[in-house]
Amino acid sequence: MNILVTGGAGFIGSHLVESLIKQSHKVTVLDDFNTYYSPRIKTDNLVPSMDDINLVNGDIRDRKITNSVFENGEFDLVIHLAARAGVRPSIQNPFLYSDVNCNGTMNLLELSKQYGVKRFFFASSSSVYGNNKKIPFHENDPVENPISPYAATKRAGELFCANYHELYDIEIACLRFFTVYGPRQRPDMAIHKFTKAIENGDTITMFGDGTSERNYTYVEDIVEGVLGLIEKHKGFEIYNLAGDGSIELKDLITLIAEKCGKEAKIQQQDMQPGDVDRTVADFTRLRELTGYNPQFPIDKGIEEFVNWYKRGYV
User: 2-182+218-245+280-295: which CATH number, 3.10.20.30, 3.40.50.10490, 3.10.290.10, 3.40.50.720?
Assistant: First the structure.
């Protein structure tokens, strides 16, 4: 299969690209190596795959570059992971998030229509659920109250995807990722920041009283979920991709400290705008279709991450 992966130099994307290559797929990576975090990290992410991919340095909003990619690609599937990520930065710069995440996604959908690409996977987010009170979150739950611009752009992307399925019969899967972690995780994300602070003896800023709850998902489980959908998905559907179980913030910090073998120094501050109280996933839909079965409970996953961090991949 000939596959385009946008954002393929990023954390999740680079892991997925490696697995696609192992399955003998032909892979093109489109990434703009922006400065949200060090572009060197993304370059390093692709080192294991560099000899086996077609790499294009470009922005998903750039119609000239993206048109060239599609014109020369003859893709069977687009896996669209590229986005401006992060809840808090989206509050500070909503126009950028709207431009990249909405206009960029629309550009890729329009090009898929134009060049006859019949399968499209869109990376959405658990943030679309907002502060839904019903637990666990199911794909059919109402998602009309996102509480950050980032979440709103991801919900908008899902709606664009639904439009293009109905109008042009493109098979589309919207993938609601639940807080992904593991080797190569972005340095701005909580588990990476907490590990770095504990290892360096620095103070961790804990927003809220520590009872906020997240369903964390190890990156290898995410990749297995996506690979399963490549084989099984038909039509239009939304899927939760998540780990098995959730953990409160204070317990997560304690667990990371235990795996580091050091003490965590914590400074408590008020909850941040845009942060949801909890995320807990029901991934029955994905499990019934593909047999999805997460292999990394949080204890095992955090141990793997800390070991990776200590090897110097920072």
Answer: 3.40.50.720
